[in-house]
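Tokens for chain A. Residues wanted.
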């Protein structure tokens, strides 16, 4: 709630005086100090105005500022169309297509209208609207829960299918590995690979012996050695020939 000390008396401000307002006229939309409100009540044209306390005004000040003036032109609403059940400010009325016979002042409309009934009707409509909104929110929440539950079930089903697929793939992989290990061709390749490694080892040993013989042995020993190693070298070549086709 706003500070009531900030609401000043309108007539006093016009006289360049600063007095705190004690009353508020909802028609004039102006505050009055205790002295000026007496003058306000003296004028016949102002006697039917609604004058309330500043505390009561502050309770509706923000609402009043929003709804008493036209959002487009900032003018007070002064005219009413009964057929359209619509209020107009002067500027809006001048640009509307409402006929003059269908326009009365807001004050005239008040005499033929019951404000209490109008507010009650608004409250009823608002209550119905709130019930509808509440119902729709509940429906949306139930739909959201249903969707969430359905999504969870789909995710669980996908996970279950994935697990089954993974288990099946694991079995296929194990079977494939087992088949490869027992395959005759694979066995043959493994055996050939083992023989080749042995021949490689033997060839390196012969090469090492040749190097040592060349460096330290006599010519006779080299001659004899070179003839002796020809036989195992030829034998290794014969062994390698069948292994050329992997």
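Reply:
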């Amino acid at each position: 709630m706003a500070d009531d000390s900030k609401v000043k008396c309108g007539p006093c401000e016009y006289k360049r005086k600063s007095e705190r307002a004690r009353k508020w006229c909802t028609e004039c939309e102006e505050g009055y100090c205790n002295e000026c409100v007496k003058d306000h009540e003296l004028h016949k044209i102002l006697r039917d105005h609604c004058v309330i306390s500043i505390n009561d005004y502050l309770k509706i000040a923000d609402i009043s500022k929003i709804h008493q003036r036209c959002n487009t032109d900032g003018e007070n609403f002064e005219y009413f169309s009964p057929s359209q059940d619509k209020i107009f400010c002067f500027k809006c009325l001048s640009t509307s297509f409402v006929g003059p016979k269908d326009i009365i002042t807001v004050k005239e409309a008040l005499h033929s209208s019951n404000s209490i009934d109008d507010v009650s009707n608004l409250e009823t409509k608002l209550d119905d609207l709130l019930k509808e909104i509440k119902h729709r929110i509940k429906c949306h929440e139930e739909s959201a829960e249903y969707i969430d539950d359905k999504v969870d079930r789909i995710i669980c089903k996908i996970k279950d299918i994935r697990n089954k697929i993974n288990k099946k793939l694991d079995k296929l992989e194990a079977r494939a590995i087992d088949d490869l290990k027992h395959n005759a061709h694979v066995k043959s390749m493994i055996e050939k690979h083992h023989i080749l490694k042995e021949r490689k080892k033997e060839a390196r040993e012969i090469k090492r012996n040749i190097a040592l013989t060349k460096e330290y042995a006599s010519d006779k020993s080299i001659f004899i050695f070179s003839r002796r190693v020809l036989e195992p070298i030829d034998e290794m070549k014969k062994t390698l020939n069948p292994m050329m086709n992997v």
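Helices lie at 10-14, 34-42, 54-67, 90-95, 106-111, 115-182, 184-216, 219-240. The chain is about 65% helix and 5% strand.
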